[in-house]
Amino acid sequence: MYRYIGNKKKLLPYIMASTQEMIGKTGTVVDLMAGTGLVAAEYRKMGYAVIASDMMTYSKWHLITQIMMDREPTFDKLKISSCYDNKYLSVLDYLNNLEPIEGYFFREFSPAGTPANGVASRKYFSAENACKIDAIRQKINDWIASDSLSEKEEAVLKHSLIMAVNTVANISGTYGYYLSELKRNALDSISLLPVQFSAGNIQNNRVIQGFAEDIAKDITADLCYMDPPYIKRQYAANYHILETIARGDYPVAQGKSGLRDWWDQHSKFCTKTKGLQSFEKVVSEMNCRNFIISYSEDGLFPLETLVELLKKYGEVDVEFIDYSRFRSNQSKLPLKLNEYMIKLRKAD
Ligand SMILES: C[S@@+](CC[C@H](N)C(=O)[O-])C[C@H]1O[C@@H](n2cnc3c(N)ncnc32)[C@H](O)[C@@H]1O
Fold it and tell me: pTM of the predicted model, to two decimals?
């Protein structure tokens, strides 16, 4: 369960159709602001070589898991007694059955905790789940410190922990604030589930963590899919708890909501003053001819402004999303008509 702001689950057929129309069925594509990794994973499934990036650490773990791996990791360096023939399942079982710890998550994010800054206890997780999260985090950190995990193994475990945390979080969508009473899902016991890995080529795939504006110049691809934030809400603030799990650290939890200091992951795309420069830097500096940019009529910048900017670089075409095109009669998806994709074919 991942109610990630702006995830493109519903738009996948449109993005794939437009990509095929622009570059055919092969080549290298970049999912530049990849978030949950849904689009990158679909590109991989379609047979493209995929480069995926985002500024958030949690996104890096999702991306490595989804586009750099075609089978479960072997956990060769880890010394635990295996209860299954399969070491990966044994590792998950081991983590799921750790002795709970009253640690950082218990103190800062559960109703039974006493936050260090003296505010009222926060209710992001039940006390039981917070203690289980503390135990799993500590164990993963110990394994990293003793050099017992490869990067892919760390990715899979943190990806799974984040997915599990999402199912028991006591929130309405984002981690900006918690709900006043623990909801039913928050009372379920947290459990890490195995990832279903899919076969397929991973040889030429790559994951990069960084600001799109900074990394664009180092990327060469046939097509870049860009899905920037289109409103002022900052992802780093809204998903601070996932970032803390991804980093495995213990930041000061500030204010009533317990936000970590997130300024280092502040996005210029969420600002009227710097957003356009960021678009332009990416488009002008990346060694790539074709761009598909998802945006919304509710966004910070009007369509005309974006089109005017992009026209400096080549031929621009806008496709408004018509959900009925890919909609089955049974579909319960709401009709939203304000989303569009800008396609840019840069001039030589
Ligand atoms: C609309 S979401 C992408 C959702 C994604 N397509 C999906 O389906 O999950 C926007 C993403 O852009 C990332 N982001 C925002 N500003 C960024 C920047 N300057 N550089 C890199 N990533 C950025 C955010 O962390 C967020 O994951």
Answer: 0.95
